[in-house]
Design a protein that fits this description.
It comes from Streptosporangium nondiastaticum. Keywords: Signal. This protein is mainly β. The protein contains no helices and 43 strands. The protein starts with 38 loop residues before the first strand and ends with a strand.
Length: 585
């Protein structure tokens, strides 16, 4: 059984509520989102340990991991475009931390901690672990209490081993002095988090491993000569064997007031850094089946990025307001290509250029490859939705006639700077066709116009693809029955005609829909007091006109009926005209 030793000089342990964690209750899970745009770079390493971003010099530093057994001899340096600046030869470098003034990058390997100039990328020895503590485990570095701290495992038992210790490096460059300040018999790996806004405070966390399923977070006082335990937080009853925290990553907000934790079991937690209690508002749960792996705040404090290993189309990266109490709008990214990494690696998120660029190190399920994604302008997006059902006009849409679809798009947040447009498609028995875009008015209304070309069922889908401020809206659809176009026959017959004299009058065939093809014929029937007779057919000209020619021989009322039988796209129609036939016209 593992025996836990605690610093005797501080009898205080914070009495905090157990369980829970700052997860938003009753809120929707992170939705599936877009594929990340921007640059993707295959990293020339077989493992991954840490990423540090130097915003002042626009550099991204990446080190491989030793815990996997790899001893890659390099530190990778990229610029903010994702282009490799330099591959620094440095065997077994793992832990890194950037000084508060940005003038030094500290890098730990198995034998020492080195100070690099982030501009020239040259190094000098900071502290050499003479006669130990050399090891083959990843180190974690942190700056707190005017000291540089590092983790060490004296047994080289990296995963689940109890030999982890916390050491501090003292003295100027090339000083070989060292001091072991903190020994706490907890399995590792250990993780450190510190903030310049919290001088003299540091958070230590451990990963959940077999036989130790309920690790905690520990507030360390680093202000004095010796480190002191100032508080702790467990997420299951402390002495129980119940599963508690499964720490994957943690990060302080830039102002030091909040600590975000990527908990592989419970999601992304948001805690008050003063006592590790739950923040008033928490983050939404991740996608179903997702395991949180990373978390990072932008340096301006506006945004937080939450990384996961999500199955299927679940969101692997969610960007939102750092404080969820100020708004829950998100921007979600889906990593669905194994050849570019389909999940966020542990500790695989970092920001650059304040909140304008997000860097993500991704991997695959086998952890056999690693990629660097550069995501430009990953700001969270406001919601957009179609309100109600689409309306149609006219009430009886016909083939070849003008059809109007009307609707309303609701946009949360500020009004867009550019006109918003929606797109639409029509799908019928002939397939799918894209219609012209429609501009959304300031009140959110829009009208999509179409001219259906086929009789029968047509399904219209209206979409909003999102913009620089809003997420895409869920499509809205409407199925419409397209009828045959109506037709009319009009006759311009005279009121009177003379017996035995030729009668010639015009008529016209018209439609409210698709154009009537050329070469049509109308039939003409004459009805007199002596009986009814079909006179034959009359050709219809291209403009729809035709002529009725007859010589009436019976006195009295003569009725001419002209009929068109219709076709596949048009209804039939007919019209009649009565002429008074006599000896005098």
């Amino acid at each position: 059984m593992t025996r836990r030793r605690r610093i005797a000089s501080i009898p205080l342990a914070l009495a905090l509520a157990l369980g829970g964690g700052a997860l938003a209750a009753g809120t929707a899970r992170a939705d599936a989102g877009e594929r990340p745009a921007g640059t993707v770079v295959k990293l020339p390493v077989a493992s991954y340990s840490q990423m540090v971003v130097d915003e002042a010099h626009q550099r991204v530093f990446i080190t491989p991991s030793l815990n996997s057994g790899s001893r890659t001899a390099k530190i990778l340096v990229y610029d903010f475009r994702g282009e490799l600046v330099k591959s620094i030869d440095h065997v077994a470098a793992t832990g890194m931390v950037l000084s508060e003034d940005g003038k030094s990058l500290y890098v730990a390997d198995t034998g020492g901690v080195y100070e690099y100039d982030p501009v020239t990328l040259t190094r000098k020895l900071k502290n050499w672990f003479q006669n130990g503590p050399s090891e083959s485990c990843d180190r974690q570095l942190a700056l707190s209490g005017n000291k540089l701290w590092y983790t060490h495992n004296r047994y080289n038992d990296c995963i689940g081993g109890t030999g982890y210790e916390l050491w501090t490096v003292k003295g100027p460059a090339n000083d070989e002095s060292r001091e072991r300040d903190f020994l706490y018999a907890m399995p590792g790996p250990w993780h450190l988090a510190a903030s310049p806004k919290l001088p003299g405070r540091m958070i230590l966390g451990t990963e959940a491993v077999p036989g130790y399923p309920n690790p905690g977070l520990y507030v360390l006082d680093t202000s004095g000569e010796k480190i002191k335990l100032a508080g702790e937080r467990y997420f299951a009853p402390r002495e129980s064997s119940a599963a508690g925290l499964d720490l994957k990553d943690m990060a302080f907000s830039p102002d030091g007031t909040r600590l975000a934790v990527a908990d592989g079991k419970a999601g992304h937690r948001l805690l008050n850094s003063s006592d590790l209690s739950d923040a008033p508002a928490g983050y939404q749960p991740p996608a179903d089946g997702a395991v949180p792996t990373a978390v990072a705040f932008s340096s301006d404090g506006r945004l937080v990025a939450r990384g996961s290993a999500a199955p299927g189309s679940g969101a692997d990266i969610v960007v939102q307001n750092a404080d969820p109490a100020t708004g829950t709008q998100q921007r979600s990214y889906v990593l669905d290509r194994a050849d570019q990494g389909d999940q966020v690696a542990r500790r695989g998120l970092a920001w650059g250029d304040k909140s304008n660029t997000l860097f993500a190190v991704t991997t695959n399920a086998e952890h056999s490859g690693y990629w660097l994604h550069v995501l430009p302008d990953p700001k969270p997006l406001y919601e957009a939705r179609f309100a109600g059902q689409l309306g149609t006009g006219p009430d009886r849409p016909v083939v070849g006639g003008k059809l109007k679809l009307s609707g309303r798009l609701e946009l949360d947040g500020p009004a867009p700077a550019e006109p918003v447009k929606v797109t639409a498609t029509r799908e019928d028995a002939d397939g799918k066709r894209t219609l012209a875009e429609a501009t959304v008015a300031k009140d959110g209304t829009f009208t999509v116009e179409d001219t259906p070309s086929r009789v029968g069922r047509a399904t219209y889908t209206v979409s909003f693809a999102g913009d620089g401020t809003h997420r895409p809206a869920r499509d809205t659809t409407l199925t419409v029955e397209i009828a045959k176009a109506g037709t009319t026959v009009t006759l311009a017959a005279p009121a009177r005609a003379r017996i035995g004299h030729e009668l010639d009058f015009t008529g016209k065939l018209a439609t409210d829909g698709a154009r009537i093809p050329s070469g049509q014929l109308v039939t003409v029937i004459r009805k007199t007091p002596l009986g009814t007779k079909m006179l034959g057919t009359a050709p219809v000209a291209a403009d729809g006109t035709f002529h009725v020619v007859d010589t009436p021989w019976a006195a009295g009322s003569t009725t001419y009926t002209v009929t068109w039988n219709g076709d596949d796209l048009h209804d039939p129609s007919s019209a009649s005209a009565t002429v008074k036939v006599g000896l005098r016209g």
